[in-house]
Design goal:
It is built from eight helices and six strands; from the N terminus they run αβαααβαααββαββ. The chain is of the alpha+beta class. It has a single domain, classed as H-NOX domain (Alpha-Beta Complex). Helix 2 runs parallel beside helix 5 (70-84).
């Protein structure tokens, strides 16, 4: 029996759904929880889909090494994007360049800052699966002045409207922290975030020669 490409992808996805519970690492949850906890005057429950249980967990201590349900992360990410970011990618850019970079650099500065933009981004690709989602992966194909960074998840990129632009800003920050000048990051799928569910996203990264 011949199984076409779409059939294989569908079968692999069904196997993942059946055998693996989707999780997100606390490293990523902490960054979003910080925003909710810092904006106590906002009525997060009435304006979003966050539940009382979600809010109690957010106020409690999120463990960086812990794994949390992806549904919780979806509600949290969507809430922050809507309430704090006004449903605009600019808020996600600021989040990636600021809060997310600060959290990762505190733990992985020696690995992410290598005085080589390409090496720093390669290291981030290795860290991606263990520090973000258990079903997602990342790879980086480099060139002399840039490369292509790809993230993929057969079950779909969680909270893609905010996560995809966040990664775009984070990649730029990693390159700059490693000495790159004139950094540019383009995401070919960014125009599709509101119209279709993505399982793969590519970022083309370029910078100037020194």
């Amino acid at each position: 029996m011949v199984v076409n490409k779409n059939g294989r992808i569908q079968k692999e996805t069904e196997m993942l759904e059946a055998n693996q519970e989707r999780k997100v690492k606390g490293t990523l949850v902490i960054a979003l929880a910080m925003i909710v906890n810092d904006r106590k005057k906002m009525d997060w429950k009435s304006q979003t889909t966050l539940t009382d249980k979600d809010l109690a967990l957010i106020k409690d201590r999120i463990l960086p090494s812990g794994w949390y349900d992806i549904e919780f992360y979806d509600r949290l990410g969507s809430a922050v994007f809507k309430v704090a970011g006004n449903n605009r990618p600019e808020g996600a850019y600021q989040f990636g360049d600021g809060i997310m970079w600060n959290i990762l650099s505190k733990t992985y500065a020696n690995s992410l800052v290598r005085n080589s933009p390409g090496q720093g981004i390669k290291t981030f690709a290795v860290l991606f699966k263990g520090n973000f989602f258990n079903t997602a992966s990342a790879e980086y194909q480099d060139s002399e002045t840039g490369g292509v960074f790809k993230i993929s998840d057969p079950l779909g990129i969680p909270t893609q409207e905010s996560f995809v632009p966040m990664i775009k800003a984070l990649l730029s920050r990693i390159a700059r922290e490693n000495g790159a000048k004139g950094v540019r990051v383009d995401c070919e799928q960014e125009s599709k975030l509101g119209s279709e569910k993505l399982t793969e996203v590519n970022y083309k990264i370029t910078w100037s020669k020194k």
